[in-house]
Amino acid sequence: MAMPAAMTLLAWNRLxxxxxxxxxxxxxxxxxxxxxxxxxxxxxxxxxxxxAQRPRDLQAALGIEQYTLSxxxxxxxxxxxxxxxxxxxxxxxxxxxxxxxxxxxxxxxxPIYAEAIETALGARMDEEDRAxxxxxxxxxxxxxxxxxxxx
Amino acid sequence: MAMPAAMTLLAWNRLxxxxxxxxxxxxxxxxxxxxxxxxxxxxxxxxxxxxAQRPRDLQAALGIEQYTLSxxxxxxxxxxxxxxxxxxxxxxxxxxxxxxxxxxxxxxxxPIYAEAIETALGARMDEEDRAxxxxxxxxxxxxxxxxxxxx
DNA sequence: GCCCTTTCGATGCATCTGCATGGAAAAGCC
DNA sequence: GGCTTTTCCATGCAGATGCATCGAAAGGGC
Lengths: 151, 151
Fold this sequence. Notes:
The structure is a homodimer. Chain A is mainly alpha-helical. Chain A contains six helices and two strands. Chain A has a two-stranded antiparallel ribbon with strand order 1-2.
């Protein structure tokens, strides 16, 4: 396998660093006003958009580990933002349902989160560059397909 | 503050996801062959390039939290990859020095790490796009300057 | 010199994460 | 039906992280 070109390494370093800085900025903004971290937002949004759903589906949608979601949901249930209700179709699982408080929390988080994203990303590049960035990152943001078998 | 444009959100989502996937890929590749995680590599490389240095300087160079580095170094010292020696100029601190094993470890990690980067990034976009990506990410990969005071 | 403030680095504690595993229900097979 | 395999989700345990704080040394003013 070829070693990475210099430009690949530069892009790599910047990618990791940019994402990390931006993430920290957002997490910090939410924390600073006493709101839960971004991953809670993702769950709340997914449940609001997709309706009540099973952990397995939510996990796939969010792209996180099974045990990560399991415990994340634990905390959110404890915080009354999400409820677990029995799943009629499969007694192993259950449905995750947004509570009223969860709905309100999503709404409360959005302005803060949005402003943080705008500060970290939107305000630092023009529309053309944002579009170019989104386009370039598209292939990297997908799950890698399985390696095609070589003959 | 303006809410983010749709393109900002798309770029944001892809940025976070792309960095996360790529990171996982690299960490997994190293772990799969029994090597330490990428952040160890960063420390080893910084010490190799910059020579023995103090935690404070290393921390700034790596852009991580003070306590994160403190404990990371703890583990690496325990693994004999790094040694702490008294600092002649400042008795509060000490110098972090790469050991022979640390040097060897950096060399051992590089092929694996490099191949992972190549797979995750280099092989998925052409040279032109890599350059464009690096350019677009440049402003995001810098520490945000302090907000200029408004009049 | 002395005192006060700042910087350096480590650490107690609570929380979070990753890995491996567990138990229970469902699906497939005969 | 009965049996094995697979899927679903939780959890014990060890390790990592974040936050606040601490002790020690350095720096600054006098």
